[in-house]
């Protein structure tokens, strides 16, 4: 198999009709490491919105169980991508996601924004650090894939086109990326989580490196001091050197989506586990009522699909 055979296979598919297959090839075989890193930063980016960070801080999940929340999100999204959102495991994963979100008073616009980051943040990352440019079909397929997931989550008013949704994301960030203490709180817990994956002597460097990867708008919203300019320059140079080296690697023959790596919360996953075993616990008893979905709001997306 040639290095660009999978890209050529993607080019021969229809990005709307075959969006799941294209997304599986792109995220599971062509750019698996890049998608993982980009989706980590995509979630991190959503914590710059005070209405999102305020709820996350109130639940205490980032204070008490940051690793479990990370693992739940990563594994549930992997289940949908690996098996398809309409497969048995994909539908079960969606139900777990919907029940978790359905307990809380989350605005549709906040849900829309989070969904948009899953499309465009990996595209931005791979455009800068990928070993090859994304094919236009990969861009369009990512939009159609997450649009289908969003519909099954009960998210309303998802824009009809790739460019309309991107415009929504950009405008949302301009309006809503402002500093709040809960942004900083949740952001700090997340940086500490990232640093905790490394030996203790490397953790200060990881914290500095994460700050070096954040843009000015994110730094302001989190209230983080910018890292020295050389940190971002060094990180960018390293990632681009990695991309150049990968051009000479043989193509991946198996998708990583079907065999997620060992994680801290669920050793050995997926052996012996079902998607229903994942997910956050019920809201804490002392959670302020403003964060809970009221009976007048209905059940919304809890039981979809």
TrEMBL record:
One Pfam family in the UniProt entry: MPAB_Lcp_cat
Domain ER-bound oxygenase mpaB/mpaB'/Rubber oxygenase catalytic: 58-231
Residue ranges, annotated region (Disordered): 259-305
InterPro entries assigned: MPAB, MPAB/Lcp_cat_dom
Lineage top rank: taxon: Bacteria
GO-annotated molecular function: oxidoreductase activity
Polar residues bias locations: 295-305
Protein name: ER-bound oxygenase mpaB/mpaB'/Rubber oxygenase catalytic domain-containing protein
Organism: Actinoplanes derwentensis
